[in-house]
Amino acid sequence: MSKRILRIVVVVILVAFIFPFLFSMIVYERNFNQRYEVYEPLSRKIAEFPTLSREEHSFFSNKGQQLQGYLYSDSETSRSEALGLVIIAHGLGSGGQNAYMGLADYFASHDYLVFAYDATGNGESEGKTAKGMPQGLIDLDYAIRYIKENMELADLPLVLFGHSWGAYSSAGVLNLHPDIKAVVMAAGFNRTKDLFEEAGKDMFGISIKLFLPFVSLYERLKFGKYAGYNAFDGLDNSLASALIIHSSDDAQISSENSYDIFHKHYGSNPRFDFIQFKDRGHDMLWYSDDARSYRDKFNEDFAEYVEQLEVEFTPEIRAEYINQILDKGRLYEIDSELMLEIVGFYNSAIH
């Protein structure tokens, strides 16, 4: 082989493999190379829930990083009377479990213990960054191991509630814990690359598909076997009941990559139930109609307030406005009808 042909082969290899791989790696890290903290003005406080009690639990994940968790219970109900334990896996961007305290309160008031934690690189947990999508699945695996090794909790039936990143993790972790009784997937998806494809379409068009194999390869190199788990495989390898919840106006995870694919795959399977909304977006799935109306009006009033400012807008001004004006009770009002359906779903699965 001549040197010229050899150089051409090298260039082709670089163009066809190395450059796309490096590009995919850079884009991946830019998306996950950060921590996610709770925004204090919008944070929940345990004092907001009169009968909700919690105790701190910390455990270690795959690289020895310590994760902060909380065990929630109803102060008016004995733990010995708990029907089961709900593990909440949070979404990416909220800063951790704090945003889901209203759910914990509801489940606890309906005779469940609730374990919620901050994933790696989120909230009160260690980790310089969130690392990537499979890290959520890893952390949930270690959370479930921790529960199963806890003498007080090990005998309780386990059910999962996952939102977005946490929904993907909750279904995927069934590959490792097929004994889980039930999983609620709120705004969930099947595979990491489905989410990357959706996010990249606006920027790269259909050519984003060329990079997806490199995204998968990078995840495999970074996360090992965990990168190979997806929601479909977990649901197929388990007898867990599953409730799929999604809103067709979700701007982050489309129906095509969420509700539609799960309904197509499992619509006739009696283990599965489906709820599809039209106007709840990505983060308001379990909140009431009044809560969503209040949020919209609050945002509208805030925009008018900022427009009328005679000084430069700062984060401190935003925080002060929220602290003075926001009614968290209205903003975070739970959709009691939906939550009652979820509790009924859990009750049926554990009996």
Largest sheet: 8 strands, mixed
Q: In terms of quaternary structure, what is this? A: single chain
The helix content is 40-55%
CATH architecture of the largest domain: 3-Layer(aba) Sandwich
- Beta-strand level of the residues, as a percent range? 15-25%
- Strand runs, count: 8
What is the count of distinct domains?
2
Q: Kindly, what is the distance between the CA atoms of the first and last residues, rounded to a whole number of angstroms?
A: 70 Å
Could you provide a short overview of the structure?
The protein has 351 residues and is an alpha/beta fold. The chain has helices at 3-32, 101-109, 133-148, 165-172, 192-204, 212-223, 231-236, 259-266, 289-307, 315-325, 328-331, 336-350, and strands at residues 52-60, 66-74, 84-89, 112-117, 158-163, 182-186, 241-247, 272-277.
